[in-house]
Specification:
Rossmann fold; single chain; 6-stranded antiparallel β-sheet
């Protein structure tokens, strides 16, 4: 749900600076000077307890003394004074506040208590707060500079939001040198109230903003961010650089999925789901804002590279392929057309090396042919200045040919002063230029990933509840609720498979045996060979206690397996952890071992996993993450992110797995996770996938502790 408008912060008619002072070098003086030096069309009220004027402007001892209405209060006083100041602002009808002051949660429990006191006073009054511990806010298109930065950002079309005030000042200095303009320039600080979602929504509605660029250290309210980003990214690019990739995620020892779903990987999955483009380097942040504003989105990852020198083409190719982009395979028609216009020794493939003596017309003809090829999703044109090269005229001819092409075109004019006029021609025509070919290839990879992210935004399923849904929910609830009186949170394999079967996930037939004689009888009824596995209400990984015995051919083998399991459990964890075994038919394992799972993320709630399974699942780490709920389209996107998908399609004469059936299984698994929030972790490992069937051979379900009330259980962060 959207919060009240932020107009009071970005478009105030009057601003009070609480803590304004004339002391040289002080924050209060700088904020006041910035406000009055860059007219925003409103009035400024310095607030100081004793002075009659500050910087020659009439001052007032407190907010109640200000003679007119105040839209925005900028607070720069000591942290302990802020809660009472906020209360005065609320009583005076102030609708927005920027708390620049530091000394809050970053200082410990006492500072966190001050923040709670601020929220208590502001809650219910409709006041919106940015900060605390921030640089402030600029609205360059409106002339507002409510910061203590040195200077004012240039007006432009980029909305910039940062959690780092120091980075804001560095970006401000860089942008002035590079002539990059902003529609908004926001330091969010601790995000006590106004968060990413609020600002994304606001800038999404702002007619001056064409793209949103963010420096993020923490996600904050994940649901707010995802909801806003999914809506706004359909019309305006959102580009994020997020620090902290190397921070190790907390490992859930009881779950394979928990050990594989690192926190940063979950964030990547969330960005993909809501259409946000994540970049790896600060230098790419604003480059992508420019590129996405100037060029159409590619329909896929296939790039054609056109160059007059082989080396730069190879550099671009290496970077492209290393990051999952693809070299376009030129059609026979394109190859024939290029043969007619290029010298006999051209490369006859992609990269299209048109030879070092290429002139403007040769560049133009090759560009036209490359863009017309249906196998091409985008084009990179590289020029190195040879003696016979005319960089400026070549750029002009490229512009003529590209025109309103629906495919993105990037350029790399390599060199110095000789190529500057040519790059100016390209940039004026909205064809982005880059100094190095590998940089341009990286940008193209960002572009197709961004386009792919956007295609998934409208795929969020809406599930009408039918009788089948109710039945399977009741079946799963019956199994799970039976554990509540015992306080048990680990389902046995038998119980886990009952829950999965309720959701239409095929499981291998499994029967319980409480005694060794019962195990022998069950095996005889099933027919040899059989598999014997530990049945335990506490042991999560059966293999760790020799709890899995396969392909048993006789009664003697079953009795031996029983004794080995019972002894190993008793020795390693205690006899009370052995509740017999399960007996299963020995299935033909001609297929691929997959893993399907779910674990909990502290910010995003349940996170789904799909990938290569088996006992070495954590070694191979071939997996993709996603956020529930899924439909078949989203399920397929997860599958396509793994390496095992190529084997599932059929390799070396082997028949393909039924990928449609696998998609449906992932959707039903997602439904289970959404319908039964009491489930904390689920592993199906392995899920046997063969051309003839899908079969869950083993399963583990772990519940949230029963002390957690149903209303407090984590829910999916993506809503339909």
């Amino acid at each position: 749900m959207r919060q009240p408008s932020l107009d009071a912060i970005f478009r105030p008619r009057s601003v009070a600076v609480i803590g304004a002072t004339e002391r040289a070098g002080s924050v209060g003086r700088t904020v006041l000077r910035n406000l009055v030096s860059h007219p925003f069309g409103g009035v400024v009220f310095p607030v100081h307890p004793t002075r009659e004027t500050v910087l020659g402007i009439p001052a007032y001892r407190d907010i109640p003394s200000v003679p007119g209405p105040v839209d925005l209060a900028v607070i720069v006083t000591r942290a302990p004074t802020v809660p009472d100041i906020i209360e005065q602002c609320v009583e005076a009808g102030v609708k927005g506040a920027i708390i620049i002051s530091a000394g809050f949660r970053e200082t410990g429990h006492r500072g966190a208590a001050l923040e709670r006191a601020i929220l208590e006073r502001a809650r219910g009054a409709g006041m919106r707060i940015i900060g605390p511990n921030c640089l402030g806010v600029m609205s360059p298109t409106g002339g507002l500079n409510a910061t203590f930065a040195k200077g004012m950002a240039l007006p432009g079309s980029v909305g910039f939001i940062s959690q780092s005030g120091a980075l804001c000042t560095a970006i401000l200095d860089w942008s002035s040198r590079e002539h990059v303009g902003f529609s908004a320039f926001v330091s969010v600080g601790s995000m006590l109230d106004v968060d990413w979602g609020d600002l994304i929504y606001y800038l999404g509605d702002d007619p001056h903003t064409r793209s949103i660029v963010m420096y993020m250290e923490s996600i904050g309210n994940a649901r707010s961010f995802l909801s806003a980003a999914r809506e706004v990214s359909l019309t305006k690019p959102i580009i994020v650089i997020k620090t902290g990739r190397s921070e190790a995620a907390a490992r859930a020892a009881a779950s394979h999925t928990g050990s594989l779903a690192g926190r940063d990987d979950v964030l990547d999955a969330a960005f993909r789901r809501c259409g946000v483009l994540r970049v790896d380097h600060l230098s790419h942040l604003f480059a992508m804002a420019e590129v996405l504003a100037k060029q159409p989105r590619p329909s896929g990852p296939r790039l054609t590279i056109l160059t007059n020198a082989g080396g730069p083409g190879v550099l671009a190719t290496d970077m492209l392929v290393a990051n999952d982009g693809e070299l376009a395979e030129l059609s026979e028609g394109s190859l024939s057309a290029l043969d007619r216009v290029l010298p006999r020794h051209w490369s006859h493939g992609n990269p299209i090396d048109i030879i070092g003596d290429a002139g403007p017309d040769r560049y133009a003809e090759a560009t036209r042919i490359a863009l017309d090829d249906s196998n091409t999703d985008g084009l990179l044109v590289i020029l190195t200045p040879q003696d016979m090269t005319n960089p400026t005229r070549t750029a002009e001819r490229i512009v003529d040919v590209v025109g309103e092409s629906p495919k993105p075109v990037l350029a790399c004019w390599m060199g110095g002063a000789d190529i500057q006029a040519g790059t100016d021609v390209l940039n004026r025509a909205n064809i982005p230029t880059f100094d190095y070919p590998d940089t341009a290839a990286s940008v193209f990879n960002y572009m197709w990933r961004y386009a792919d992210n956007l295609r998934g935004i409208d795929a969020t399923p809406s599930r009408p509840v039918d009788a089948g849904d109710v039945t399977r929910q009741r079946t799963a609830a019956t199994v799970i609720d039976a554990l509540r009186p015992m306080g048990r949170t680990l389902l046995t394999e038998f119980e886990s498979k009952q829950v999965l079967a309720a959701y239409g996930i095929p499981t291998v037939a499994t029967v319980l045996a409480r005694t060794v004689d019962e195990a022998v009888a069950r095996a005889g009824a099933i027919g040899y060979p059989v598999a014997i596995k530990l049945n335990s209400e506490t042991v999560t990984h059966k293999s760790d206690v020799q709890g899995v015995h396969l392909a048993l051919e006789s009664e003697t083998a079953v009795r031996h397996a029983w004794s080995v399991i019972e002894a190993a459990v008793g020795e390693r964890v205690g006899p009370g952890h052995f509740q017999g075994v399960t007996v299963q038919p020995m299935e033909q394992l001609d297929g691929y071992e997959l893993i399907v799972g779910c674990s909990q993320d502290a910010q995003f709630g349940p996170v789904l996993l799909f990938g290569t399974g088996g006992t070495l699942v954590e070694v191979f780490r071939d997996r993709a993450l996603g956020l529930p709920p899924l439909n078949t389209r989203l399920a397929r996107r997860m599958m396509d992110q793994t390496r095992i998908i190529e084997a599932l399609k059929g390799v070396r004469g082997r028949r393909r797995v039924d990928l449609d059936a696998l998609e449906q299984l992932l959707v039903r698994f997602s439904d289970l996770v959404v319908d039964v929030p009491r489930i904390r972790d689920v592993d199906i490992n392995p899920l046997l996938a063969s051309p003839d069937r899908l079969l869950a051979l083993d399963a583990r379900i772990i519940l949230h502790d029963w002390s957690v009330a149903d209303a407090d259980l984590p829910r999916p962060s993506v809503t339909s």
